[in-house]
From TrEMBL:
Keywords: ATP-binding, Cell cycle, Cell division, Cell shape, Cell wall biogenesis/degradation, Cytoplasm, Ligase, Nucleotide-binding, Peptidoglycan synthesis. The lineage of its organism: Bacteria, Pseudomonadati, Bacteroidota, Chitinophagia, Chitinophagales. It is an enzyme of class 6 (ligase). GO terms for cellular component: cytoplasm. This is UDP-N-acetylmuramoyl-tripeptide--D-alanyl-D-alanine ligase.
Length: 425
């Protein structure tokens, strides 16, 4: 079946699903394959559950004219999303980076949504499957779309750009994330920089943090840049306070002035500035920008401040890498609190650099005074240190429950695989 024909079916059934457990009546079911699953095996089951059609790439036993055979289901899904994307003549903003890209995406989304019909990536569906699904959820009434792009190896973002076709790009930072897949920090720069490469080639626009010299270097040759930062930028702002929540003054736009956020950590300052910059560029009224950012509440274990009795807990357990871990620890160390407890889970996907990066974090911790330090799992278990040490978040949870902390500030952070949020369960 030609992609144009499949698109006509999509227009009749504009809801796509890849998981039969989440299937709704009249969905299009795309039978994706993975290392441990084969969606082709569920093609008939999907039809029985109410799917309008099942798109497969293997012969399925049982005749049904609602089964559509293609050469490769994943590439067909991506081609369909590109065809759908090409129907729009609106801004598509692609966002990537090593730390905080989801928060940046969420802030930009709330700002733009205050004035435009805006579609964006749900949660962190930011990979080769999630991005096509996000594109296919953009409806005809869209005025702007915001697409998050995650990556753990080179050529990945370049591939996403082929079907997302972004008109605008934003790399919020480059840090020590997914070192194993990228092959070191220079590999990370090259991989994230693929977004700039696409924007440069297509003569699009980037939003750039002028505080980061490496972004300025990476963006050479791009004609249209809209800048933000703490100085020498179109949108400028400064940190006023970060206790308990971030307060930012937008000095370049007095009509916005002081923004009182619900974000924890001064490392979120660039994310706020990015959202203000994007909003102003698209002429969102300043009062709407301010109100939107002030109303945003972080969720899903991303820098959440939780008050439990007399304790204050910063839960930042969605993900971790050496760069974000360093920022979180240093920010926590600055907080004016007498009793501070660190509970850190191991970092993943660091390859040969893993032991050295975990040792660096231990050395960093030792520079500050803490009431207690707990290290959990992974390569933290392979390094000699004097802190509390557990193999899993479940063991750390048992220890935590027995401490009966009062009037204590806690930081709980770790890679997604460590499930550090379970300490509070």
């Amino acid at each position: 079946m030609r992609i144009e024909e499949l698109y006509q079916l999509f227009l009749q059934h504009p809801s796509v699903q890849t998981d039969t457990r989440k299937l709704k009546e009249a969905d299009l079911f795309f039978a994706l394959k993975g290392d441990n699953f084969n969606g082709n095996q569920f093609a008939l089951q999907a039809l029985e559950k109410g799917a309008a059609y099942s798109i497969v790439d293997q012969v399925v036993s049982g005749a049904d004219d609602r089964i559509i055979v293609v050469q490769d289901v994943l590439s067909t899904l991506q081609e369909l999303s590109k065809y759908h994307r090409q129907q729009f003549k609106i801004p598509f903003i692609a966002i990537t980076g090593s730390n905080g890209k989801t928060t940046t995406k969420e802030l930009i989304h709330v700002v733009l949504s205050s004035h435009f019909k805006t579609y964006t990536t749900e949660g962190n569906l930011n990979n080769h499957i999630g991005i096509p699904l996000t594109l296919l959820k953009v409806k005809a009434d869209a005025e702007i779309a915001v697409i998050e792009m995650g990556a753990n190896h080179q050529k990945e973002i370049a591939g996403y750009c082929k079907y997302a076709l972004p008109t605008h790009g934003l790399i919020n930072n480059v840090g020590k994330a997914h070192l194993e897949g990228f092959g070191g920090i220079e590999g990370v720069k090259k991989g994230k920089g693929e977004l700039y490469d696409y924007i440069r080639e297509t003569k699009g626009t980037i939003f750039i943090n002028n505080d980061f010299d490496y972004l300025l270097e990476m963006s050479e040759g791009i004609g249209h840049k809209v800048s933000y930062g703490t100085h020498d930028a179109l949108t400028t702002g400064e940190l006023i306070s970060s206790e308990p929540f971030l307060k930012v003054n937008i000095s370049s736009t007095p009509e916005i002035g002081l923004i009182n956020t619900h974000l924890v950590g001064d490392y979120n300052l660039p994310n706020v500035l990015a959202a203000v910059c994007v909003g102003l560029h698209f002429r969102v009224p300043p009062n709407k920008i301010k109100a939107a950012i002030e109303s945003y509440q972080p969720s899903n274990s991303r820098s959440q401040l939780i008050e439990s009795g007399t304790n204050k807990i910063i839960l930042d357990a969605y993900n971790a890498n050496p760069s974000s871990m360093k920022l979180a620890i240093e920010n926590f160390a600055k907080l004016p609190a007498e009793k501070k407890v660190l509970m850190l889970g191991a970092m993943a996907e660091l390859g040969e650099a893993s032991l050295a990066e975990h040792q660096y974090i231990i050395d960093l911790i030792q520079k500050f005074n803490w009431h207690k330090v707990v290290l959990v799992g992974g390569d933290f278990n392979k390094i000699s240190h004097s802190f509390e040490n557990f193999k899993s978040s479940a063991e750390a949870r048992d220890w935590f429950k027995n401490q009966q902390f009062t009037n204590t500030h806690l930081l709980i952070k770790g890679s997604r695989s460590m499930k550090m949020e379970e300490i509070l369960s």
